[in-house]
Amino acid sequence: MGFSKWIGGALGWSFGGPIGAIIGVAIGSMIDAMSNGDSGNFTGHQGQQRQHHSAIYNTRPGDFEVSLLILASIVIKADGKQDQRELDFVRKQFVSMYGKERANQAFRLFKNIAKQKNISTRQVCLQIRQMMDHPSRLQLIHFLFGIAKADGLVTADEEQQISIMAGYLGISSLDYESIKAMFYRNSDNAYKILEIDKSASVNEIKTAYRKMAKKYHPDKVIHLGEAHKKGAEEKFRQVQEAYEQIQKERGF
Length: 252
Hints:
Blueprint: H1 3-10, H2 17-33, H3 61-76, H4 84-98, H5 100-114, H6 121-131, H7 134-148, H8 156-168, H9 173-181, H10 189-193, H11 202-215, H12 229-250
């Protein structure tokens, strides 16, 4: 699959606004770096650029994909270095979701995005917030924590950066702490994942479980395509495990 066909067919609302500007610079860098003179392959996307005033929440897989690439590039640089394990994690995730060929195209784009300086986290996140539904934004935060944890530890700088992004994305503190708890080992994490206190009653625990199972159900992001079900299933599984852990501890 040629790059122009992939990028032109994948993107919807994301090819406009600040995100479109970032992608444009990245593609320009890729064209400049080409040594085979085949820059004509990149012209196919030009007529398909769209401004971000499309119908709200008309999010396609390519929009999520590009949003993830940009936010991941910011998180990876949050601690002042680019750890190879984090880069490998990004590529591995894309291979598992899209296959090797498309993952190679996405990773080429990612590396050129990561080279850019002064990317406005706020502007990018506000565009995503305006156009992307809540379950998809939760999925973004989950992926970003996975990338930060790829080297074995979510650093304070990385956590702070993801927290800032979550705020701009309109993610509540409860939802943020729920996803964050999935990547830390702590005796209270099962309760945080279910968004309840340790003092919650059995009925409150059961109600919270039903609520979170519904919120994180893989069907919530089915519009992003089958490729994203795996990540959604991971969140759903951790909700189930948190509930089972509390059941065991509380004996109900």
